[in-house]
Structure formats: structure tokens, C-alpha cells
Amino acid sequence: MNNATSDAAVAAPLETVEIETGPQPAWTVLWLHGLGDSGEGWAPVVPELVRKDWPALRFVFPHAPVRAVTINNGARMRAWYDIRDFQDLANRADEAGVEESVAQVEALIAREAGRGVPAARVILAGFSQGGAIALAAGLRRREPLAGLIALSTYLPMADRLVREAAPAASAQPLFMAHGSYDPVVPFQGGEMAAARLRTLGFNIDWHTYPMAHQACAEEIDAVAAWLSQRFAAA
Hints:
Blueprint: E1 16-20, E2 27-32, H1 39-42, H2 45-49, E3 57-62, E4 66-69, E5 75-78, H3 95-114, E6 122-127, H4 129-140, E7 147-151, H5 158-164, E8 174-179, H6 187-199, E9 204-209, H7 217-233
Parallel strand pairs: 2-3, 2-6, 6-7, 7-8, 8-9
Antiparallel strand pairs: 1-3, 4-5
Helix pairs in contact: 3-4
């Protein structure tokens, strides 16, 4: 049984790109891409991110399902959920799509347990839409993950997720970062998400960078330093 409270049916298993940094990985980093991207889009981060003193890791980069996206005139692309309203963050996410994607992510976490990596050694990361799903899944976790990484994102279904958050969810360390010039997910959206999560007791390592809707080298270095702390604390 997965640890999400959602009753959404699990759709077909997600296809993934996987990279292992050593034999018999003891940890898994599950990384969710943004709208219109794919698992391949973030796979190149591995050599930039990994440090020599880290344990063997399995990076899992799933591909989001292909679905119609309302704000793109119904064009079909990889998306974790439909985006119905670009301007209104509170109503941007299609709740059914969020629920489905959370269930699919939970299935991947359960698969890692079957491969010898328990939830306590799984890091769930995501960028933009992927970060929104990482936060949604993290708030539902009754068995905490080793940590959450949410980059250039916001909290979808915020009122509902805060209301339904699992009591143990705030035990998960959380890294958040956002570009101060982000035109896609406004910087204020990231700040608001962090503020809501702090009310639940989350300890957030927050970073701001002078960039748009993207990642930068300084951000990746900060993520690496934060991950080093997680591995050292285990």
C-alpha cells in the first residue's frame, strides 16, 4: 500500500530514464521534469551534481504522461497535469491530473522499496510542474522521505493540501529555490508556497537566484551541498 491519502487510480506505470552512480545503489533520487520536457531533460544534471564522497545513487527521471494542455490551445505534450489558468496560481492545476501524478510517483517510490531502497533513503525532486507534484506528494507522505527538492515551483491545490497534510510530512527536509525574474511561476508564488509549508512545520532551505524560469550552476551547487547533508545525516 502506498503512503498517499489519494484514492486516485494508478495509471499505467511511468517510463523512466535511470542512471546509477555505483553498484547496488543505497539511495534513490527521483527527479520530475517540467511541462513539455521529459526525463532526458534533467538527466544531464547528474555529472554536474554528484560528489565523489557520496554513496552509490540511482537517479530516476520519469517521463510525464502525454496529455492535452488547456493554456497551450489543447496541444498534447508531456505534463503532470493540465494547466487551465496561467494567471491564477490557486486554480492553475487540474486536481484530477495532480492526483493521478501523485499516485504514479508513489508507485515509483514503492518500486524503489522493492529494489532495496526504502522511503527513508529516497529524495523526491522536481522542477516547475514536477516540483509542484513533488510538494503535493510530499505533503501526503505518512512515511517521510529523506528529503524534498522543489525548484521554480508553487504549491498546487494549496488550501486542500495544507488541510490534508500528513502529520509526519513536515519531518522531511525541504530545499526550495526560485528565480527572482521568473515569468512562468512568479517568484511570489514560490514565496507563498514556502510560507504555507512553514506553517506546517517544514524546515525549508530557501534560495533565490537572479534568473528566469530555469536552473543555474549556483543552484545546482546548493542542491549538491544540501544532498551532502542528507547523506551525512543518515
